[in-house]
Amino acid sequence: MYSFLIGVGVLLLFSIIWMVYRIQTLVTVVKGSDKKIASGSNKINAILFIVFMVGAGSLMFWYSIKEYDNYQLPIGSEHGLVTDHLFWVTMAVTGSVFLVTHVLLFIFPYKYRYDEKRKASFYPDDNKLEIIWTIVPGIALAGLVFSGWMAWSDITAPAPENAHVVEIMGYQFAWEIRYPGTDKVLGDYDYRLITASNSHGIDFTDKNSIDDFPSPVVVIPKGEPVLFKIRARDVLHSVFAPHMRLKMDAVPGMPTRFWFVPIKTTAEMRVELNNPDFNYEIACTEICGKGHFGMRKVIEVIEPAAYQKWISEQRSFIQLDPALAEGLPSKTKELAEIQLTEN
Amino acid sequence: MATATVTNHESASHAQQDHEHRDNFVTKYLFTQDHKMIGKQYLITGMFWALIGGFLSILFRLQLGFPEMDLSFLRPLLGGWITESGSLDPTFYLALVTMHGTIMVFFVLTAGLSGTFSNYLIPLQIGARDMASGFMNMLSYWFFFVSGVIMFISLFIKTGPAGGGWVVYPPLSALEQAIPGSGLGMTLWLVAMTFFIASSLLGGINYITTVINLRTKGMSFSRLPLTIWAFFLTAVIGLLSFPVLFAAALLLVFDRSFGTSFYLSDIYIGGEALPNTGGSPVLYQHLFWFLGHPEVYIVLLPALGITSEVIATNSRKPIFGYKAMIISMLGITILSFIVWAHHMFVSGMNPFLGSIFMFLTLIIAVPSAVKVFNYLTTLWRGNLIFTPAMLFSIGLVSFFISGGLTGIFLGNSAIDIQLHDTYFVVAHFHLVMGSASFFGLMAGVYHWFPKMFGRMMDAKLGYIHFWLTFTGVYLVFFPMHYIGIAGFPRRYYSWTNFEFANMYTDLNMFVSVAAIITFTAQFIFIFNFFYSMYRGKKATLNPWRSNTLEWTTPLNPGHGNWPGEIPTVYRWPYDYSKPGAEDDFIPQTVPLSATPESNLPHEQELVKLELEIMKEDEEVLISNETKH
């Protein structure tokens, strides 16, 4: 019943709008204002541009200032300081261009709205102006590009020798973490070796893999370089650690990498933000299927000493599941058994 | 004076024959070879797709803005895609995003914009009877139509349409195990795109040939309206880049169906290790973006061309820097082919390549900036008439600035690390490519409606449509910048799994409401369009007092466009408010010798040459007549 009444109401509303529209059209025809080059609406539209500029402009400034702490994520890495600086420099440059051009774009319509008595000025070209506004943006962009290029080269340079390696493997729909263990070298892997108990496809015949260990959380030390070795098992994924300003695709068949230096421990960040629940997170930013939006992993940044302690407490894949060592060639098996007895 | 191209004089008599034989419904409205009707076919089809594409975006905006909402009322339409608990299925969410992108980019902004206006305007503005090949032109539309039918069918199949994002990156798009949409849905997507590419190529070849060969006497390249320059360069870009997409799609078909490994390697999925090795998903990305980036300009350049024309006409001023506009379009055309990898800074490709592409990308900002400054200077000291087309053109310039400037962030690889695949990107391209091109399309429709249908659209409804859409678009896409800077990833069904993104529910709700209002406002346009087609006020021959050739045709031009001889062109199309002239416009068909009062010094010199040519022509005409 209600929906029927609503339907009737909507119908009535539409017919009223329709009537107003028809009457309005007929009035303009009778008044002859439809013959004019520019009707009275011309001024209204001109004024609306000014109204829009003031309204939208104030809304933008108000919200940008009010929400700054919300959209500006805290920075957790050394290079993040650089890229964020670049971001805000670019914001200053483009922001001023944005403001100037928009003020002109919205004031001109008001100022130069149609007037029968006036004639537009015939101003077809001016090479000097064209050259100026080709060169000036050119120089500004060159500056931005150059600083961006410097930062990019530093960020993508090979990782320092002493970087702590963490392997992150993406699959539908989670991440798995592998540490190289005490030898600091990750063991070989082959996707054909993947089984229910060996989800990484680690090749345990490689002796480097004997001490590799998994972890449910990415634990990394503060102030020391960390190298993420990134790979994917099925489709494309992308490791995105927003606080670290870090992003790199995980590509099946083509390992990728990203190194960085965390600057604040999770605990420090919690104090600074006054948020005891704060965590550094990893999300997936390359569409990968149904669970794309749920691939969360936590990064825990701790003091270097605590990190060394943590490493020494971890149990390797083989210690966690001795069955993995079965069927290995005698030499590697020995190594594995030594580990198991140490346990 | 530049040499005029030879006009096909036989076609004049041909056109007169056309007048005598009557078209039936099929040859007039369906399998027509008249470029004007083909243009209208593209327009109507484009509008249909815009509504579908827009509606799909409303569906996923409901999920993003109101995640708790009970969507059971959509079950009659979406069936099993609404889960038992009344929420949207996450897989279908991805399919919606994918289809929204595909439809809007290809069917609306490529076919709907370029297809409509290149077809409609090229012959009319260069002074030709029709396209170089009417048959190919017809074929082009019907290939597009078939492509649309296939894509439409894919929306209704059980496993859903393609769901790997509009870029359909493999391996996701290659493996049915990875997402159900990569089964039949993806096959249909590929087939539809194949037809679409064929359609684009057929159209493009025609546009290029027509512009080069069929210009009327006096219509040199330096007298072409900027619309034609834009359509011409767009067609060139399309012709060079679409085949590459076809190559990418073909290799994907091979990987999907014939067991090759172009893009696939080292994959363990669904409990089994696939045999494919040695392929590279990054190869696909290179091939895809080799089209994908020029595609941005394929949708944008025609809109910029239309805007140039509309702004000049309604400012009653010549477009500022006609040559600079052409040079910047040429620059954009060339540069558009060498910036593609800026979509791939963090794809794992060599970072050195990233540096190169960063340099090239930021160079392309320069011609774009020049265009903006030229538009602003055209408005400066003009005598502006705010027709709906003019409003949409000014709106376009605004979006082009807003969205273009954020491109400077994204083109900088160091900054892109954080912003890549976040909502910042979504905001960026929806403004600079989506909304700007859409506004170009709207400007074109409002401006050339009187030529298309011989009637005027209602201006007041146009104003309401503009202001609702203009504010609406900003209210939808501007907030996305904040969400993007905060790091919200794209193509997310929900953000509540993450602490860093577990906020802005209010802003997302706001965006969704704005999107619904903006979408609804488009029905004002739909009404205005169809109502005016039949009941609108009768148009005058040259309602905007414009200079270009299409306004010299009869109110409802027949096939062949001009009943008699094709007019000759004597000047460039932007003689507005010329000092000394009585009117504030001088059409291209008015000889310089007829306007001694307003000629500039260098034009005065051309008058002599012009008179000589006219005399020669007359002699030829007389001798021809005596022969008969």
CATH topology of the largest domain in chain A: Immunoglobulin-like
CATH H level, superfamily name of the largest domain in chain A: Cupredoxins -  blue copper proteins
| Radius of gyration from the alpha-carbon trace of chain B, in angstroms | 26 Å
Low-confidence stretches of chain A: none
Radius of gyration of chain A: 32 Å
Low-confidence stretches of chain B: 1-20
For the structure shown, list the relevant keywords.
heterodimer; A: 343 residues; alpha+beta; Immunoglobulin-like; 2 domains; five-stranded mixed sheet; 9 helices; 46% helix; 16% strand; elongated; B: 628 residues; mainly alpha; Cytochrome C Oxidase, Chain A; two-stranded antiparallel sheet; disordered N terminus
Explain this structure.
The complex is a heterodimer of chains A (343) and B (628). Chain A has 343 residues and is an alpha+beta fold. Chain A folds into 2 domains: 38-114 and 128-157, no CATH class; 164-342, Immunoglobulin-like (Sandwich). Chain A contains 9 helices and 10 strands. Chain A has helices at residues 2-31, 41-66, 68-71, 78-111, 127-156, 266-273, 304-313, 317-320, 330-342; strands at 164-171, 174-179, 213-215, 218-221, 226-232, 237-241, 246-250, 256-260, 280-284, 297-302. Chain A has a 5-stranded mixed sheet with strand order 3-2-1-5-8, with no helix packed on it. Chain A has a 5-stranded mixed sheet with strand order 4-10-9-6-7, with helices on one face. In chain A, a hairpin with a 2-residue loop joins strand 1 and strand 2. In chain A, helix 4 (78-111) packs antiparallel against helix 5 (127-156). Chain A is elongated. Chain B has 628 residues and is mainly alpha-helical. In chain B, strands 1-2 form a two-stranded antiparallel sheet. Chain B starts with 9 loop residues before the first helix and ends with a helix. Chains A and B meet through helix 1, helix 2, helix 4, helix 5 and strand 7 of A and helix 5, strand 1, helix 9, helix 10 and helix 11 of B.
